[in-house]
Amino acid sequence: MFTIKTINNISAKGLDRLPAEKYSINPDHENPDAIILRSQNLHDMEIPSNLKAVGRAGAGTNNVPVARLGEHGIVVFNAPGANANAVKELVIAGMLLACRNICQAWQYTANVEGTDEEQNKAVEAGKKKYVGYELPGRTLGVVGLGAIGVEIANAAVALGMRVVGFDPTITVKSAWKMSSVVEEMSSVDELLKEADFVTFHVPLIDATKNLLNSERITTMKDGAVILNFARQGIVDDDAVLAAIKSGKLNAYVCDFPSEKLKRNERVITLPHLGASTVEAEENCAMMVADQLKDFLESGNIKNSVNFPSVKLPRGGKTRVAITHKNMPDMIARISSAVGDAGYNIHHLRNESQNDLAYTLMDIECEVDDDLIEKFAVIDGVLKARLV
Questions:
Q1: Which residue from 117, 160, 170 is spatially nearest to 140, judged by alpha carbons?
Q2: Phi-psi sector, 376: left (phi>0), alpha (psi -120 to 50), beta
Q3: Any catalytic annotation for residue 231?
Q4: Considering only the top CATH level, what class is 1-83+275-306?
Q5: Is 201 a catalytic residue?
Q6: Positions in the chain whose pLDDT score sits under 70
Q7: Domain ranges of the chain
């Protein structure tokens, strides 16, 4: 029986994929095999000794101490792409809100006083202040062409926009899904010079902090619109506010409200709605539950942010999963421990990712628990278990 600790409200459609005869799911489990969460901050969490995996029901993992968990051999999963459509729809909505001045016009009509006839006259006289423009023919710049960025790029193409994109690490999978008319830019700077709208879809790391700053804003088209539905900190809010005040930028639409942002009529802030749809929450929960199930029951890894992807068809009598440091001669030492115990390896798969590695192997016969103890004393082994 595997124990799963849930944090935050996890969609029942996801949890239902973990059958009750094999899984005990409870938010009160103190030493679980795995944790499933959404937005709870785990950085101050004391790591349970039995913990093998953490599943983040969403794409971003800023709220999870990924590096610290990796040092303990704990695999962290996320759900890339499960919320892509939800974010795509919100970005498209954000562009429309900005270019048609919808929020400002809404506020205007909400404050018009008088009889219906007087209000109609006032509206007809006042609407000229909210004249906007249309999306077709405008250029959208997409920074980050992962699952979300590609969906946005394709949707914008369908709306008649020119789309330019930048992503130095775009995957083959993303490239196959992206419309062939999306133009590749060689840098963020080149993209910013071309775009009427810019949307960011990158993680918040040292290299992306204040990716859009005052210096880069000066190179942009006058009247451009900035959209940030990725992470707070990717855009320098102070620089954007200064550019709006000077008239350089037309609007800023983001998912991260703050006191200084919400006081500006050219800024639209939303309460982190990017993935807040029933469908996205269900998709994220189902994806991460399936990945945890496959890992706990079969040892396979898919969509981990700290360990490599590994999939091995079942063979032999016993399966062993080992998380370890990416060190020279590690496979030889693991194999020697199996041989010294009198066992024969049926097949083995080893992959590495940066400083961490994962070995999954099947042994031809049943093995004793003392084999796991032999692995545990090997320098560099983080966790070992029978699967």
A1: 160
A2: alpha
A3: yes
A4: alpha beta
A5: no
A6: none
A7: 1-83+275-306, 135-269, 308-387
